[in-house]
Structure formats: C-alpha cells, structure tokens
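Async update (no meeting this week)

Hi team, since we skipped the sync, here's where things stand on the single-chain job. The sequence we agreed to prioritize is pasted below, unchanged from the tracker. I ran it this morning and attached the output directly underneath so nobody has to dig for it. Comments welcome in thread, and please keep replies under the output.
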Amino acid sequence: MSVTVLLKGSYSLAGDLVVAEEYMTQAGRWYGTRSLNKMNFITRLSVLCLRKSKMQQRHQSSRRPAVPLGSRILTDPSKVFEHNMWDHMQWSQEEEENAKEKAAENSLVKVQWEDQDKYEREASKYWNEFYKTHKNNFFKDRNWLFLEFPEILPEKRREELKTEERSSEHTKINSTNSFSHKNEMFEEGEKYWKKNYGGGSTSVQGYVYNKNQAKSLTDNPQGKNRGEELGRLESFPGSDATYRILEVGCGAGNSVFPILKVLCNTPGTFLYCCDFASGAVELVKSHSSYNSAWCSAFVHDVCDDALPYPFPDEILDVILLVFVLSTIHPDRMQGVVNRLAKLLKPGGMLLFRDYGRYDTAQLRFKKGRCLSENFYVRGDGTRVYFFTKDEVWNMFNLAGLTEVQNLVDRRLQVNRKKKVKMQRVWIQSKFQKPLLLSLNNPEETTERHPYR
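Output:
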C-alpha cells in the first residue's frame, strides 16, 4: 500500500496557487490527527507545491489548468465570439448586483399554493412527458465526466486511460512539468507512509490497517462477523462486483453510456442507474449499449425513504449526482442527501454538479414562475433550484460527508450567430464518506484507499 493513492485527486497543480492550496488542505484531511508529524509533512509538501507552481507559471501565460473546470481563458474581449464557451470568468461588482436585482424581480410574484402542490405531487408525470417528447435527443452525452470526475473509475482503469492518452498525444511542457511535480509530491508521501507505518500495513475486507489494528479487528467477534453477514445477503445485481457506481437521475442515459463504454473493458465494475421517470429508465434499457451484465437501471424516487434500493447500504464506491438535486423541492433535499450517504462505503465519493445562483437560466425566468426563493417551475412543469457553494457544503456536511472539492464554475457561453452572451454558473463538488474508526480506539482513524 502506498500513500501515493491517498494523494491522488483530480486537481492539476500547474500554475494555480489556489488549486495547490486546496490540494494541500485535502492531503491534511486524509492524513488524520497525528498533528505534529503531519504538519511537518504538509509544510514541506506545501513549499514544494508553491515553488513548482511559480515555476510553471513561466510556461503557462494566462492559462488555467485543464481541470478542474477548463482552460480556455478570455484575455482579449474583442475575440469573445471566436469560441462558444470561455472558462473561469470573473464577475464585476456591477454584474453581480445586476444579477441579484433580476433574480429579486422575477421572484416577486409566486406560483399559487394549489399549483405548487400539483407540481410536487405530479413531478414524475411532468418528467415522463418530457422524455416522451424529447426521448434521448435533448441532452448531449457527458463525455467530460472523466476529465472532471476521474473518481468514477477504479484507480487502475484511470491509470490505463492516462497512459493511453499520453501515448496518443504529444507531450507538452505544461503536462511534463505537472507530472514531474506530482511524482515529487508522491515521493514525499511515500516517505511519510514508510516512516509512520514501516511497511507493516495490511488489508482486511478492503480497508488498510496497521498490524495492531488488523489484529484487534480479526480478534473482535464483530469484526469477524462483518464479512459473514455480507456473505449471507441475498444475491443482488452487481453482487459479484468489486467496484460499484450509482448514478441518481440517469435520465435517458447521457452519463450512463459514456461510463459503460469504459466499464465494459473494466472487470469487476458495475453501474447502477435510477430515475423516478419510468419513461427515462425504459429509454436506458432499450438502448443498444445497455447490458445487464454490468449495468442495472431501475425506477426509484429518491425522496421516498421507505423505498428500498436493489442493493444493501455501504456498498457503493461512487455516487454521481449531476443536475438532479436541483429538481427536488428544497425542503426534501437534505433527506435525499442523508439517504444517499448511507449507500456509500467508508471512503466512497459523491460527485455533484448542478446549477449555481444567478445562472442565466435563473435570470431568464419571468414573473409568476417562482415557487420559492431561488426555486422555479419551467413551462413544461419541471422544476429547478439554483445553489450557492455554501448551501451545497452545508447539505453534504450535515449528511456526514467531508469536502474534497467545492467550486463555483463561472463560464461565458456565447451564441456566435446571434452575437449573444450568457453568464453560466454551476457548482461542482466532491464529498467523501469518512474513513472507518478503529474498533479498539474510536479516536484513531484507519487509513483506506479513498478511490480504490
């Protein structure tokens, strides 16, 4: 077991001090509570990180790293219509105030209470009508998922994809420096791991313990029985898999099929996907790429706590929650997140992307379409909420998950034909279920692969 795995994330450290600081903060979280040694380790790593970041800025000009959130930066306003999208946009105070005024104005007239109740009760009907009308032609396939959320795949498969990409592309100065930088980071982590664990770690039921922790686990009757209880569970779809993913709100499969395209070459993986619109699930199942050998699509209302999932709790490595939570009434969101958190393994990841506050889509609503603060109904009866980064953090934190990434993604989208500019705002986040506690000492945290 190498600490290299614990340091890996989706952050590109090249030339971005803010991202470097977030990377270091997360490294500190993963290493637990042995404060003195870890602080020395993190301090040394931080110095190395900042020094390399400054060096790489010489080669990068004004560009940001490709991930997270893209690398196309608008430096010359006269060239705004040369591309459809520009990344990492900064709003002026005037733009921020104008957006607030528009949102306040379109929220003055609320939808009548009886209509609000109808939109809540008949939510699945409106989405079924949506998919009946548009089928799988409305949304584009999310081929960007693996760039922003590499955690979707097991680590071994991610490394294979990286190797394939490197062999098919010319090596650039920035990427060369970035890989060199990461290698030095991992070497530092390796030294720390050997110093504190002395190569004496072992694995029990997929988790990494030092020798004393492993002995206490196997000697403890509860520890022995844990695997036996799992073995007694009835067979369920994906029961033989070692790496399991759930996409909530799969729609017509715009995330499912890009994922399956990779999973079909990844032994031991299984994808679950659900939607409360039965029409959407039928579209997924009828797709030529759907195969029950590595995917199970099912109808499920995540707002109904009484509905069981077709698999036990604490077996998922990844949950994908992309443009789904915004469709749910704000009063029910916390319950949904709480329930999903129970499905994750310790160390499992929840990957989130959704609409952000003052996105163009929010500002375009007319008066009379607002249900409640920042919650609107579209003309087709489907609903949408617009989040802040703090709201997202609070929800997942209350569910017992730990922040790995929580970013505001501001982009400028343009219609080059009509010469129209649109300020887009999304929230992109990653939250992790805390690691296991030692059975003998609840204050001592065991180490586990964060992404397996």
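Quick observations from my side:
The first helix runs from residue 4 to 7.
The chain has a mean pLDDT of 75.
Reply here if anything looks off.
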